[in-house]
Amino acid sequence: MNDLSFLYTKAGIDYIRKKYGFKNSKSLGQNFLADESVIDAIIDAAEIGPEDFVVEIGPGLGVLTAKEARRAGKVCAVELDRALIPILHDLFGGFPNVEIRNEDILKVDLAALITDAGMAHTKIIGNLPYYITTPILMALLEKRVPAESITVMMQKEVADRVTAPPGGRTYGALSVACQYYARVREVVQVPKEAFVPAPKVDSTVLRLDLRQEPAVKVADEALFFRLVKAGFAQRRKTLLNSLTGAGFGKETIKAALQAAGIDPVRRAETLSLEDFGRLTDAFAGE
Fold this sequence. Notes:
Elements: H1 10-20, E1 32-33, H2 36-46, E2 52-57, H3 63-71, E3 74-79, H4 85-91, E4 98-102, H5 110-117, E5 121-127, H6 133-142, E6 149-155, H7 156-163, H8 173-181, E7 182-190, E8 195-196, E9 203-210, H9 221-233, H10 239-242, H11 250-260, H12 273-284
Helix pairs in contact: 2-3, 6-8, 9-12, 11-12
């Protein structure tokens, strides 16, 4: 396979950009990773092997793609920016196990893509654009994409929300949703200086291992998320008041909270997934 080690330096990225006359798109949040130690940490954390199919979200100039290709059975790199496609085709023309797609990851039928790949396991990897991190994460989780794990880089502030435990300001609806669908752990923190060009904020890489079954079993999953959304929409209010946003009257809310053993003066940020689960079942039983 081609030697693409020059990609792992800022000089190499600058060379590629000048060679192809490529300019980073601010609207697409393009900041290219140029720190090989971080790249290796991501690849190692994803635990890629020859029986794996890797779906990469937003390959950019292919710094992750090159290392994925050397470990995985197949790689499908999905890139939104049309201007990057000829560059990626040139760089990875010598990699028979790499497919480059010019598509929007939010519009790709990932279940069909994964089925067609015919590999034993699927890993999703990516350096997510800051402006669309949450929609991508939630789409992958809510659609229950048939993958084993999602190893992705995101803005540190968002990662802090994803991993937050109950009780703090960073704990919210995103925390509950991600932890409901997956086991989450931090891989590595990445300073802004590791990118070309450098963004204004630091980043964090997380690995989300997708659960076969949700973290809590509830009678009505749609109701569970309705309550979570309502509770955090007015997070400074007590549950007795904030849950009216889910369409319930206060007497119904009071009865459900009592049945679930939850004090009505508590706020959503103090509730664990198990608490929200009991509360959901209490409402469902009303």
